[in-house]
């Protein structure tokens, strides 16, 4: 058996969008703005925030739902929150109440115009210089964007935008493996945990609440501060550990975990041949050279006698439409519809960073299909998002593949760079402007794509998950793998990593690791976590059994179900794709759905 790995990159952007023309600034309250008008930095600020609001109104998919006054109120509310909860380094603490009072008077006034806001800022920050004024401008802009409740529309400075564009072109990203999103209850939760990064390896999950970062409540941090930390600046620079205080529903108390902002450990494309001529490909994202690497995998598997394929896009956050369609059409006959896109404000601006303005498009297979119609299954889960949903949705609608796993994330929108002309190239947005539709005419936005065969996620009780989290973060699990297995029982370790029969009693010293009063549920769950850690260590070492660990034939229920379905079709010589969606997996159900097994 041979297995191959190539470079990894991840980004949530799906498509490119463009900006709209800037509307003239309102002229009301001119008398109040005289002072601010004399400050060039604040004049720039008025124009920048005004342009952000105008482009949100004209180009964002939900922009028409909000009035300019609502966006302005959101901008002011964001600044009030930042001043109230953050040690604003431009203002003495004793001066904060007066500024908040003046800003609040504008915010409750039905949505103040932007010019009076900067007049108020000039009153409290007389003669503020250009550099410091950007701190206020950025806070207001982020407050306006937050009005949409859209976690995917973001505001960037030039350096951050250039970094993002490099990632979109296939460069390796650096990340903790998640970004928090603020919910209606004011709590910051993880809305996506990406395989290969520290958060994933640490066992963090979608829905976990982030309470503190390096001892500071997240609620007291501005969007700019959060963006800096999650962008790898300041405290997160140079892979220095950042301490997160995390809480999960059902835990007895919050717990701390140290994460590093660094490149992923995963390869973007991994493949191997399973028994019976069943090929396996795992794709981390739809960016960079993904289409070329997938073609390379397919060619290698074909040389090995490929008779059926399992394509794994679990935990794949998406990528670029062009890459997605290039991969999708490998499995479709010419002229088949892959997706259509609807862009709000199409052609209303010139894009950014050399990217063209978007337009409504129809994507069809172009005749570049390289694969015969062999049996094919796609593995999906709740973290398969965006371009992943376009890919699996198209092959599902054309009865080309059977989908196995759980309903996908539900992101049917795309973002792209928007140039802010009033910011003189210093600030940009990635704006949600595009909605895409699968061949059946439905968008996965908020609903996802359902599987043909549902394999439920294996869950553990909050009590057990909390105990395992503590063991993991204390280093006990890593020490057990290193000392109890790799250092003294390497032959047994290799055997257990490949196949332990699903039995906890085959692991020496596991009960001692679990501690006093360990029940069968804890031992079963702990056995899975330990086995994942051991497999990861052996893969990283390039051990002699590493090729056998590319997939997990013992614990991966989605893989087992898919292999059964396509294997039976190979044996029968036919490929009837199951009809409908959301049906249960064939019984008896395998041990199923454990969080990803590939690192």
Task: Pick out its properties.
6-stranded antiparallel sheet; 8-stranded mixed sheet; disordered C terminus; 599 residues; alpha+beta
Could you explain how this protein is built, in words?
The protein has about 600 residues and is of the alpha+beta class. Helix content is about 35%, strand content about 15%. It has helices at about 35, 40-60, 70-85, 95-105, 115-125, 130-145, 160-170, 200, 225-230, 290-305, 320-330, 385-395, 460-475, 475-485, 490-500, 510-515, 520-540, 555-570; strands spanning about 5, 155, 180, 190-195, 210-215, 215, 240-245, 255-260, 270-275, 280-285, 310, 335-345, 360-365, 375-380, 400-405, 415-420, 425-435, 455, 585. It has an eight-stranded mixed beta sheet, with helices on both faces. Strands 3, 4, 5, 6, 7 and 8 form a six-stranded antiparallel beta sheet that branches. Strands 2, 12, 13, 16 and 17 form a five-stranded antiparallel beta sheet that branches. Helix 3 crosses helix 6 and helix 4 (about 95-105) packs antiparallel against helix 5 (about 115-125). The protein is globular. The chain starts with a strand and ends in a 15-residue tail after the last strand.
Q: What's the layout of helices and strands?
A:
Layout: E1 3-5, H1 34-37, H2 40-59, H3 68-85, H4 96-107, H5 114-124, H6 130-146, E2 154-157, H7 158-168, E3 178-182, E4 188-193, H8 198-201, E5 209-213, E6 216-217, H9 223-230, E7 242-247, E8 255-259, E9 269-273, E10 278-283, H10 290-303, E11 308-312, H11 321-328, E12 337-343, E13 361-364, E14 376-380, H12 387-397, E15 402-405, E16 413-419, E17 427-437, E18 453-454, H13 462-474, H14 476-486, H15 490-498, H16 510-514, H17 520-541, H18 557-572, E19 583-584
Parallel strand pairs: 10-11, 11-14, 14-15, 15-18, 18-19
Antiparallel strand pairs: 1-9, 2-17, 3-4, 4-5, 5-6, 5-7, 7-8, 9-10, 12-13, 12-17, 16-17
């Amino acid at each position: 058996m041979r297995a191959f790995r190539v470079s990894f990159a991840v980004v949530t952007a799906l498509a490119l969008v463009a900006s709209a023309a800037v509307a003239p600034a309102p002229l009301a309250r001119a008398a109040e703005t005289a002072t601010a008008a004399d400050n060039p930095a604040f004049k720039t600020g008025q124009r920048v925030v005004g342009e952000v609001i105008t482009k949100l109104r004209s180009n964002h998919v939900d922009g028409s739902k909000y009035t300019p006054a609502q966006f302005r109120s959101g901008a002011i509310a964001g600044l009030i929150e930042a001043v109230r909860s953050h040690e604003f380094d431009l203002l003495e603490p004793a001066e904060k109440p007066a500024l908040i009072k003046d800003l609040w008077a504008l915010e409750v006034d039905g949505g103040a115009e932007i010019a009076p806001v900067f007049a108020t800022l000039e009153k409290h920050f007389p003669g503020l210089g250009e550099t410091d004024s950007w701190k206020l401008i950025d806070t207001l802009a982020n407050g306006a964007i937050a009005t949409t409740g859209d976690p995917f529309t973001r505001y960037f400075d030039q350096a951050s935008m250039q970094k993002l564009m490099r990632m979109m072109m296939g460069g390796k990203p650096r990340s903790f493996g998640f970004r928090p999103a603020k919910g209606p209850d004011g709590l910051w939760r993880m809305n996506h945990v990406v395989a290969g990064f520290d958060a994933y390896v640490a066992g963090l999950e979608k829905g976990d609440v982030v309470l503190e970062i390096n001892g500071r409540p997240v609620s007291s941090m501005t969007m700019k501060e959060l963006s800096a930390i999650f962008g790898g600046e300041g405290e997160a620079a140079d892979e220095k550990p950042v301490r997160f205080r995390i809480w999960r529903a059902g835990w007895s108390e919050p717990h701390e975990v140290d994460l590093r902002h660094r490149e992923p450990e995963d390869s973007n494309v991994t493949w191997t041949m399973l028994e019976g001529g069943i090929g396996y490909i795992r794709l981390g994202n739809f960016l960079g050279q993904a289409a070329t690497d997938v073609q390379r995998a397919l060619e290698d598997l074909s040389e090995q006698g490929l008779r059926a394929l399992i394509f794994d896009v679990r935990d794949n956050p998406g990528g670029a439409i062009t890459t997605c369609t290039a991969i999708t059409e490998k499995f479709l006959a010419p002229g088949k519809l892959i997706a259509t896109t609807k862009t709000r404000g199409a052609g209303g601006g010139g894009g950014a960073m050399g990217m063209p303005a978007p337009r409504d498009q129809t994507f069809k297979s172009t005749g570049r299909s390289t694969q015969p119609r062999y049996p094919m299954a796609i593995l999906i889960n709740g973290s398969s998002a965006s371009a992943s949903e376009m890919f699996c949705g198209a092959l599902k609608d054309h009865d080309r593949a059977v989908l196995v796993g759980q309903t996908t994330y539900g992101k049917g929108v795309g973002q792209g760079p928007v140039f802010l002309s009033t910011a003189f190239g210093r600030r940009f947005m990635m704006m949600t402007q595009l909605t895409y539709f699968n061949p059946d005419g439905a968008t996965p936005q908020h609903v996802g794509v359902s599987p043909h065969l549902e394999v439920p996620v294996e869950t553990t009780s909050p009590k057990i998950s909390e105990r395992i989290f503590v063991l993991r973060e204390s280093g006990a699990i890593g020490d057990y793998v290193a000392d109890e297995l790799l250092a003294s029982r390497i032959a047994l370790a290799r055997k257990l990593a490949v196949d332990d029969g699903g039995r906890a009693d085959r692991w020496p010293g596991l009960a001692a690791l679990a501690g006093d009063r360990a029940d069968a549920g804890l031992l079963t769950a702990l056995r899975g976590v330990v086995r994942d850690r051991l497999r990861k260590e052996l893969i990283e070492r390039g051990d002699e059994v590493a090729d056998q660990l590319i997939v997990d034939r013992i614990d991966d229920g989605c893989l087992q179900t898919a292999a059964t379905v396509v294997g039976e079709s190979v044996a029968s010589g036919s490929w009837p794709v199951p009809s409908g969606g959301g049906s249960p997996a064939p019984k008896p159900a395998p041990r199923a759905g454990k969080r990803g097994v590939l690192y």
